[in-house]
Amino acid sequence: MNTPITFSLDGKTVEANPGESLFEVHRRLGGDLPHMCSGLNPHYEADGNCRLCLVEIKGEGALAASCIRKPEPGMVVNTDTPRAESSRRLVMELLIADQPPRELSHDPNGRFWQLAEKMGQTESRFPGRNQPAPDISHPAMAVNLDACIQCTNCVRACRDIQVNDVIGMAFRGAKSKIVFDIDDAMGLSTCVGCGECVQACPTGALMPANGVGVIESDRDVDSVCPYCGVGCQITFHVKDDGILSVSGRDGPANLSRLCVKGRYGFDYVSHPQRLMKPLIRKDGMPKSLHPDIDPANPLTHFREASWDVALDKAAEGFKKILDEKGGSALAGFGSAKGSNEEAYLFQKLFRAGFGTNNVDHCTRLCHASSVAALMETIGSSAVTAPVADVAKADVIIVIGSNTSNNHPVAATFIRNATKAGAKLVILDPRGEAMARYATHMVRFKPGTDVALINALMHVIIEDDLIDADYIAAHTEGFEEFSEHLKAFSPEKMAPHCGVDAETLRDIAHIYGEAKSAMIFWGMGISQHIHGTDNARCLISLALMSGQIGRSGTGLHPLRGQNNVQGASDVGLIPMVYPDYQPVDSEEVRKEFEALWGRPLNPEPGLTVVEITDAIHDDQITGMYILGENPAMSDPNLNHARIAFAKLQHLVVQDIFLTETACYADVILPAGAFPEKDGTFTNTDRRVQMGRRALPLPSDTRQDLWIIQEISKRIGLAMDYSGPDQVFAEMRKCMPSIKGITWERLLREDAVTYPCESEDRPGAEVLFGDRFPTPNGRGKFVPCGIVTPDEQPDPDYPMILSTGRLLEHWHTGAMTRRASVLDQLEPEAVAHLSPNDLEAMDVAAGASIRLTTRRGSIELTARVDSGVPDGLVFAPFCFTEAAANLLTNPALDPYGKIPEFKYCAVRVEAVSAET
Amino acid sequence: MNDQKISSNSASGRRQGRGKGRGRRTTKGRQPVPATVREIRQIIGDGPFRREGLLDTLHLMQDEYGHIAAAHIAALTDITNWPMAEIYEVASFYAHFDIVKEDEPIPSATTVRVCTGLPCQLAGSDSLLGSLFGDARIIPAPCMGRCENAPVAEVGHHHVAPASLELIQNQISGSAPVPQSAFPSIKEFQKNGGLTALLSLREGVWTTENAIEVLRKSDLKGLGGAGFPAARKWELVAAQPAPRHMVINADEGEPGTFKDRFIFEKHSLRFLEGMYLAAMAVGARPITIYLRDEYRDLIPLLEDGIKSFRREISGLPPVEIRRGAGAYICGEESAMLESLEGRRALPRHRPPYAAEVGLFGRPTLIHNVETLYFAAEILDRGADWFQAFGRNGQYGFRHYSVSGRVADPGVKLAPQGITARELVDEYCGGMADGHQFAAYLPGGASGGILPARLADIPLDYGTLEKYGCFIGSAGIIVLSDQDDIRDAALNLMTFFADESCGQCTPCRAGTDKAMRLMRDGNWDASLMNDLCQVMAEGSICGLGQAAPNPIRSVLKYFDPENTAET
Question: Are residues B269 and B351 in the same domain?
Answer without folding.
Answer: yes
